[in-house]
Every structure is written in structure tokens, then in C-alpha cells.
Amino acid sequence: MAIVNPVIQGAVDVDAMKATSGLSHVQALDGLRGIAVALVVVYHFEESWLPGGYLGVSMFFTLSGFLITRLLLAEVAATGSVDLRRFYDRRFRRLLPAACVTIIGSAAWVYFADRLSLISSGDIFAATFWYFNVHEILRDVTYGGADASVLAHYWSLSIEEQFYLVFPALVLLSAKLSGVQGVRLLVAGALVIAVPAALVIDRYLHTGARVGEIAAGCALAVGLHRRPIARHDGPRVAVAAVAITAVVVFLARVVELPLGGELPSIAILVTSAATLALVLIGLAAPAAAPLANPVLRILGRYSYSIYLWHWPVFTLIDSAAAQILLTVVLSLGSYHLIENPIRRSRAVASG
Amino acid sequence: MNVRDARLVCVALFVAAAVTGLLPFWDDPADESVLLGQTRVAAAEEPQGPDGSIDETAETGEGTDSEVLRVGTAGDSSMMFMNAAIADAIPQNWVSVPEALAIWTSGTGGLDRNGCGAFGDDLDFFYNPELGPLPMRNNHAPEPELTCDWTKWLPDAFAEMDLDVLVVSFGPSSMWGYDVGAGPVDLGDPTLVERLRSAHQAIALEATAAGVKELIWVAYPPVINTDIQQRSPHPQYATNPDQADRYFALLSSLDGGVVDVRDILDEQYYVDGTHFGELGAAIAAERIADAVDEIQRASGESE
Which SS3 state, helix, strand or coil, does residue B15 take? Predict the structure, then answer.
């Protein structure tokens, strides 16, 4: 069992730890989120413009794997453990309210618009309890297929939340067994299993087929743990970022999703690798263009709200202008009225 | 907002979302829609007969109880290449053409005839510049006689097969250029559109007169056969996605539902760029099976 500093254990301030361990907010990663959400939204807005825009979801998966593992590793390194209660509390406050409001709002909208075929009780339960991808697989529905529910986009949120639910517990177990080294072994094992699993399972919506993209992000976090990254603000970094982004956009322009719901493995692998490279660039040049340009950063900041609301809006409204306007309005409202106030809630001062 | 309040809000919203799923009105059969392919087609408010009158059989539930629906197919060669997959997708529903009726059939179990469209022998179509306008009957259908006049065969077949649902695919032979009197025109021509609509309605009328309760029209993709694209004097016709869209719009205006397979376009889904191969047929059949399933459920709920 790892030896834990008894003074620190149980009293660690994660925010302070983030500030001292290089985990502070990286603007370029907001830009990366912005690219990802733009790909997905354009794909849903007009598929022929970006037939492979679904690859944006891979970017989210890989980025989530990286950020969560980085945070957990820092905590393990500082305390020898993971405060699961604290982790889940923060995750739930971050993700759950806006997701639930979107579910309720979409259901109400569908009801009053008399478009009841676009939702079912099963959809609502599956979205609320984070098994929407399983729900779709059990109904034999393929992504982008015919019977798209107004909540169909919850499939990817479900996979992310399944990851958030299971992974920290595994990290805690590994940390208790052999500290940071245990976490390294956990991630290495996950990567070794997940990548071949994706090829074998070969179903777009299947959690087992998508863990590889998340594990790739986890692996980068493990690889970078306690390794300082030299700053490289300069034109070469900018050119590299543009070139790698261009590769992703090119893939998004040409790689259509197979109609049978198979996983386009090579395109996803390349997207995941490109995301890792962009993360590295973002860390080396956190405030540098082009990843940290204001448009992408704003898109990235609102990415969760945009992702939540764009699909119900696109499904329920025909006019392109109204789709864009309403997505913007609802995303802003969701972010400023629900997501941000709850996420930034502070503990009541004691005494 | 403090953390405690934030947690309460989270729990409240989570419970509210879950309770939303418990509300019973989502499953109200009065609002049931029939989902067909990529198009959701609202079920008719009242069951209607072919002439617009109320179908008393459907209203009283006779024949629409939870018995397994009997499903058959009819069409041109596009149907021929889908039959095996459809039979596999809905084995409990599938009704194969009896051997005694094997007149208008390719032998794959459906009422299909290679090269024959919904127009029958009425119009000449344009396929090859060297050949000029061709009578449809000269296309590929020499047996049992040189004709595409489906009225000679289909009505009797419908009556004999006792179908509940008829799946119809006349896509490829509906999207060519046709001669309506002054050279070739395509589906953008109002005269041709109306004639094609009438031809489809005539088939629907025969089917419903023989007891078919629901029609499923298949909105076929454009032809992607490069050989045809090179030879065709009017590439704006069968190989043009606009033609497929216009055909989809026409089918959507008919009674019945539409299974949309226009997005199955990649070569891997075809045997020849016109007809589905195993992969393409399986995807189309899956969508048709979903549509049949919706109709089955709707008919069970209307009891």
C-alpha cells in the first residue's frame, strides 16, 4: 500500500493543487473544444458540408480522458488517494443540471409542438440515467439512422458519464495498491485492451468500441505527469496547429459514417492522435493563436451547452436561420443561468 | 449560489427529468406516428378506404388485431434485389409469391418484374442515345409475354396473397427520362409527375381493393452506375440526386408511408450501381422491417 502523507490526506485543496501543478485553465484547450463542437454542429446542420463531422465527438472523448486523468493523477500524487465523493460532486454539478434541463425542456417542447414521435419514455430514462447509447443499441438503432430521437445526441454524453463513473473508482483502487505507478499500469492496461476492443466490437455507439479514444487521452496525461512542458510560442507552433487541424477537417470533409453503424476505426484513430498532438501544442503554447483565438475559445466555453441544445433545435425547427438563432439563445441561457452558476457554487463559510 | 443549494438543484432537476420519463402521455396511441426510413409519417387520423371513405374494417378493428401482418413486395428489378433481405428481416411477416402465380415475378419471392416500371407499357423511356426512346416492355421482360402491363397480373396476385402490407419499389424505372409527347422529360415535368402519380395510385387502388391495409413506398437513391452515366444522353435523369428527391416528394404525397433509402449511395452497397447488393439490401430491409414493426404496433394499439 502506498504511504500517504497523513498531514495532507483528507485536507487537500484541489483548487490550490491545480494552481501549483500546472493544471490551471488552458485557453488553447477551450479552442480545441471549440473545434470539436463546431465539427459536430456543422455535421448535424448540413451533413453534406462535413460528412465526417461526427469525428468531433472523438476529440471530446480524447480530451476528456486527458483532463480527467491529469486531475486524478495530480490528486493521487499529492494525497495518495482520490476523494471520490468530491470528484462525483463536482462532476455532477458540472454536467447534470444543464443535461436535465435540456431533457425536460426538449420533452416539453416535443409535447407542445405535438411531435410526440420524436421522444419516448425510454429515451428520457436513458438520457437521464446515462445509458442512451445502450438504449439505442438494444433498439438496434444506428447513429444517424432513421429514428433519431430528440435526445439522440445523449449517446456520447452517456459514454462520457459512464467513464466518469467507473474510471475514478479504478484510479482510487490502483492508487491504493501502488500509488501513481498503479494508475500508470491501469491506463496502460486500458489502452492495451481498448484499442483492439474497438476493432473487434466495431459498433459506433458501443461503449467498448469508444473507450480507446478516451484511453488515448488518459495515456497522454500519464505520459506528461510531472514532466514540465517547454513553452514554444511561435510561428512554428501555429503552423503545426493549423496543419493538424486541417487534417481533422479534411477527414471530417471526406469520411462518411458507414450506414451499417460500423466504427470508422482509422479515421477515429487519426482524429484521436491529432487531438493528442493539439493538446500538446495547447500546453506548449496555452495562449497562442490559432487554438486560443477568441472565436474558438468562445465556442469551446459554450461547447457543452451548444452540444446539449443544438440537436433538439435542429430536430424540431426547419428554418436554418431559426435553428442557428435559437441554438445560440438557448446555449447562452443554459450556460449563464444553469451551467455556470451551479458549477461555480462555493462552499458556505463555516463558523 | 452555495454548494449546498447547488446540490439540491442538481437532485431536484435529476428527479424532475426522471419523472418526465414516467409521464404516460408519451405513449398515447392517438398520436402514434409511423416511422418509415428516415421519414416520420404521421398516421392518418382516420383509417380511410382507397376512395377516401372511412374503412370500417379498420375502425372496428376487424383484421387489425395483434395477428402477425402479412407482408409482400411488388416493383421493378430494384425490388428483386431486396426481396431476400426483406424475407430475412421479417421472416414472420414475409409472404412469398405462390408458385402458381409466378408470372410477374423474378423468383425471389416478390411480385417484381425486371425492367418494368409503374407506367406499364404506356410511355417510352430514354436509356441510350443510340437506341433513342424505348418502349418499356422492350427493356428486359420477354416472358411470359413482351409486356410491362402489370394490370394483367398484379390484381389477381394481390387477391390471392391476402396481404396486409405491400412494399413497393419502382425507383429506378421511375427516374428515367420519359417521352410524354415531345421528347424526353424528367420528373421536373408536371405532366410526367402527374402521370407517374396516377400510375402509383392505380397500383395502390388495386392493392387496397384486394385487402391491403397499408402501403410502404420505397424512395430509391439515384443510379450510381458509371457505365449508365457515360452512356445516358440525359445524365440529369436517373443518375441525378434531384430526380431521387423529386421521386421521394411524389411518394410522400401518396397514401401510405415512405421508407427513404436515398442515402445508400456508396458502391459497396451495390452489385452494379443500380441494384443493391447484400449490404445495401440489408440496410434497406432493416428500415422496411422497422416500418412494418411500427405498423404492427399501431394496428395492435388501435384495437
Answer: helix
B22: nearest CA in chain A?
Answer: A121
Q: CB of A96 within 8 Å of any CB in chain B?
A: yes
Q: Alpha-carbon dihedral of residues A235, A238, A242, A245, nearest 10 degrees?
A: 160
CA neighbours closer than 13 Å in the CB half-sphere of residue B89: 23
Contact A256, A143 (CB under 8 A): no
More confident residue, A322 or B224: A322
Cβ of B38 and A140 within 8 Å? no
Of A116, A260, A342, the CB nearest to B28: A116
User: pLDDT of B47-87, one tens digit each?
Assistant: 333 333 333 333 333 334 458 899 999 999 899 999 999 99
Nearest to A26 by CA among A237, A227, A297: A297
Show the beta-strand stretches assigned E in chain A. none
User: Which among A50, A20, A26 has a CA at the least distance from the CA of A301?
Assistant: A26
* Cβ-proximal residues to B97 (8 Å cutoff; 6+ apart), any chain: B72, B105, B109, B110, B111, B157, B161
Please spell the DSSP secondary structure of A165-176, one letter per residue.
Answer: HHHHHHHHHHHH
Residues in chain A: 351
Alpha carbons B283 and B73: distance in angstroms, whole number:
16
Contacts 24+ apart (CB under 8 A), A89-94: A89/B3, A89/B7, A91/A164, A92/B10, A93/A342, A93/A343, A93/A345, A93/B3, A93/B6, A93/B7, A93/B10, A94/A339, A94/A343
Q: How many CB atoms lie within 10 A of CB A306?
A: 25
Residue in chain A nearest B269 by alpha carbon: A259
Contact (CB<8Å) A117/B32: yes
Cell 391476402 identifies what position? B162
Spell out the residues 6+ positions from residue B75 whose beta carbon is closer than 8 angstroms to its own: B110, B111, B112, B167, B168, B169, B170, B171, B218
User: What is the DSSP code (8-state) at residue B137?
Assistant: G
> Which tens digits make up the pLDDT trace of A87-111?
999 999 999 999 999 999 999 999 8
In a mutational test of the A interface, the residue from B5, B7, B8, B10 whose CB has the highest number of chain A CBs within 10 Å is B10
